[in-house]
Amino acid sequence: MREPKSAPKQSGRPRRYSAEDIKTIEDLVADGKTVNEIQTATGATNNKIYEVIRSIEIQSQSATATMPASLPSERARLKDIIDKAVTEGKPEELDFSIGTLEKHRKRFQNPVSGIVNPVPQESVGVYREPSRAKAVTSDVDQLDKCLQAGIPIPRFLEAGPRRNLVFSSNDKLRAAVVTTGGLAPGLNAVVHSIVYRHTKTYAALLTAGGGMYGFQNGIAGLINDDMIPLSREDTEQWLDVGGSKLGSGRGATKSDVAAYLMGKAPESTWGHQYHVLDRLVAIRRSQDESGSWTDSEISDAFEKVQREELDIVRSNLKNKGIDILYVIGGDGSLRFANHLAKHPENDHTIVVGIPKTMDNDVMWVWTSFGYASAVDQATQVINTLHVEAESTRRAGVIEIFGRDSGFVAANAAFASGHVDLVLIPEAFLGKQPDEMLTLLHEYRQHLVREVQRKRLQLKAPHLVIIVAEGTEGVLRENDVALPHPNGGFVPTNISFLEQVSEFIGRIEGLSGRFTNKPMHLVRSQEPNAQDRIYCQRLGALAVDNAIAGYNDFMISQWMTEYVLVPLWMVEGRKKVPTKGMFWLQVEETTGQPHAGSA
Q1: H or E stretch including 437?
Q2: What is the rounded distance in angstroms from the CA atom of residue 221 to the CA atom of residue 199?
Q3: Which terminal residue of the chain has fewer beta carbons within 10 Å of its beta carbon, N or C?
Q4: Beta strands in 211-273 (DSSP E)
Q5: Helix/strand/coil (H, E, C) string of 201-212?
Q6: What is the mean pLDDT of the chain?
Q7: Please, what are the domains in the chain?
Q8: Residue 335 contacts by C-beta under 8 Å, 6 or more apart in sequence?
Q9: Which of the 8 DSSP states describes residue 243?
């Protein structure tokens, strides 16, 4: 058993971590140790431990893969950090401050050498002072713990316009925006808000030689240097349009790299640096005629591709003279933004994130933009298909987006009130395969009872089943197939939607089954009024703080306030707590058996 290292003595300077220190932390993470256990064994700060966890994740998983289940929720993580800060007397653990690039250091937050905002408070609102912040938690027990220990209450910097800027009209400011990852209602509204804030509100900063630009096609556009000028007259026409007018896409994933190495066509081909793998392929073929690759080798190759992408993007941004880059994306894209901001050779570009996920699963974001619109549209689809199921006496199986979290599926089902079963990934997390099968059997028995109940009440027998797409992945990772009502298991060589339909099977009283997959209809719609307003707030606040020099952060609405969250904190995905009040209400509404995993 590994002997714990004694915690280093604290000094005035931050601890420097050796390669051996990092390797020890990596080994403990691999052993499944908790953050507290790793901290005790190594003396490392929580921030450093989470940084190592992020590094492991980016090397071994695609940007869209599920984070390890051991990573805590926001509430649990914050409790963990506060406990350490209190028990170890380390208030630096609660430092969620935002820094700047070295080139802006003299002007940053400096009332003497900083540049006075040319737009008065009467036009943009009260300037937020550098010390103005909002508490990260409203948990009175946690706040009392900090106060009693005499350590600072954990806080995020409040977002808003600033008195002092780091750019002047002489700097020829050039800003750009990119939309990455999957679609979400409101992408165009965020882009317009950023463009409007730069070209209208802060037009005084965009002098000749400067300008506002957009990179097309997501990460591929950053790699291929596919940049176009943007004007507010153009983007105003995008406000009530769904999708992304700039085009959106992810970076290369681990599965893409694996496919390329094995001589297959990657799913994503837009501009990704697969050519960096050609030498690896040639070497492998000279050593092994089969050209086989281990998972570890694929992970190493994936890391090389990501490093190459970051190097190219960093170089392109500097060559184009881009002073600020706004990255609108989910947790994978925000991690990319974090690595770009911290690139050792990034001495020019401020990187700002605007969290985007229709699934509402980005950490440290109260509610993601596009989520309300997605739930609205999904609810309408469910209600319409409920009419189809009821009228034809059939079971309707509807698949909704939710690769890792079931927020949209659960909330839309709850809002509809016409759903008999909701399958979400979280219902199966933390269970053993036999427990998963037991729950699945209970779910089908519930459906049979529902049909019988409706027949006894002289109602039209029918069923509506909602499936979050990520449910398939959780079952597959545990080698669990859906049980067939006639015995055995449903074949897995058909779509998961069809598998669920087969799992339901023939139920007396129903005339048949139908499936529907409105996922792209839901995500490509225009944003509702609530999301449109929200998007424009996020975009404007991103600009307010970027031109003030703040770097490597995302704009977030946390609780009721708009704040700056350090990008290093954004990893993992939020989950529906299946022991929480909300999910219990969903289960009560559908009548389905209780999952109760987490």
Answers
A1: helix 433-456
A2: 22
A3: N
A4: 211-215, 227-229
A5: HCHHHCCCCCEE
A6: 88
A7: 158-367+529-569 (3.40.50.450), 371-524 (3.40.50.460)
A8: 54, 57, 58, 63, 567, 570, 571
A9: S
